[in-house]
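ERR on first pass: missing label on line 2. Operator R.T. fixed the label and resubmitted. Corrected input:
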Amino acid sequence: MAEPERIWTAALLVIGDEILSGRTQDKNVAQIALWLNIQGIRLREVRVVADDMAAIGDAVNALRAANDYLFTTGGIGPTHDDITVDAVAAALGLPVVIHEGARAILEAHYAARGGVTEARLRMARVPQGAGLIENPMSGAPGIHIGNIMILAGVPHIAAMMLDSLTGTLEGGRPVVSATIGCNVPESEVADMLAATERAHDGCQIGSYPFFRDGQTGANFVIRSTDVDRLKACEDDLATRLIDMGYEPVAGGI
Amino acid sequence: MAEPERIWTAALLVIGDEILSGRTQDKNVAQIALWLNIQGIRLREVRVVADDMAAIGDAVNALRAANDYLFTTGGIGPTHDDITVDAVAAALGLPVVIHEGARAILEAHYAARGGVTEARLRMARVPQGAGLIENPMSGAPGIHIGNIMILAGVPHIAAMMLDSLTGTLEGGRPVVSATIGCNVPESEVADMLAATERAHDGCQIGSYPFFRDGQTGANFVIRSTDVDRLKACEDDLATRLIDMGYEPVAGGI
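pass 2 clean. output:
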């Protein structure tokens, strides 16, 4: 019997009152999910918590234990509400220290901008033993410690930190997906979808209904880590839709 | 001494592989957060989990115990991947039954659309003892059981279910907020922000940096449940910015 495929998983902890108040629309979940998939790592859970030491610490310890990797976004700037480093360090039982490499990066970045003040030096603080994640944009680096990657909350800075991490994390086979759209109420094909999924080991089918331009329809997303199985399931689903009198639209509607 | 103000809290559990895969950008967190605030209820935590019975059940039990209310979105349609009702019922130790009121709603809705098939009848399944949350749009209702509100995942349908719930949940005083924008690197005012927050009991100040049109700046968001305290803190912050040579922009940049 073949060994079951190792699935690599990650969790994401979004830290910030601004997301929980509804003021800011999160954009990091989707971008990190897509990036992780290319690394062959599956995003298994996301939590959003407030700027609160205990809430962050509890989530960090639950999520880092249950997953291969934990990413955090937010709370690593220079102001009083930026407490991610302190909360992660406390969760790990580590002291917070100034990272000399980070200090050097900040000194270079702020050389022509008034120098490194005490507030700016906050951005060189790390849990003891941590490494840096390069941030070519704004100087202040991200941090990795154990299986935890601490990223910025501003989405385009988080994106650059992900670029720096690309190819550095061990993963498995990425999930590939195919989408078939159809102008059909999903309730009319529900049994067929379930039967199709059962007939194709290693494939999952998700059904995502829409109502658009007066038309009811759904997109069916097939996911697998095996390209051949994915194709077989996609072809079968299209055939079954045609047999029922509907028109499948490859790529979705 | 005045009794400390009772804070009403809610958690949100977003259920769906489509969010964790990055395929779909979540829109329910922000809309539910804003709606909750108007009800005087604070969104304290969000979790996103996959379409998985154990993952949903564990999150439901953790979040309903820690908060006054738990909202869920997603997984209540007619297809095989819609398992929210089963997972919530299992978490509560309740059987799943057909709700006769929900069946009647579906029969009326589908009377001219081919009737209630077995797949459509899935949308009348509820944990035993549950009530319904009206959905004027697509027939299939939301569900409330204990302190749990089970909403649709499609954002405009979730919005209509929130409309149905408006004014029905007990809450406290809503959080009010004021925003001051300023073209200043946040690291230059970090100490002042912390001092301002300390000087104003019952107010929190968040700092949200931006880089736009070649300008570095930040928006400072003050939050409080007390309008007078909010105003005092806002005025003080504006004065301090002016004293440091910066120009505060009321309402943010």
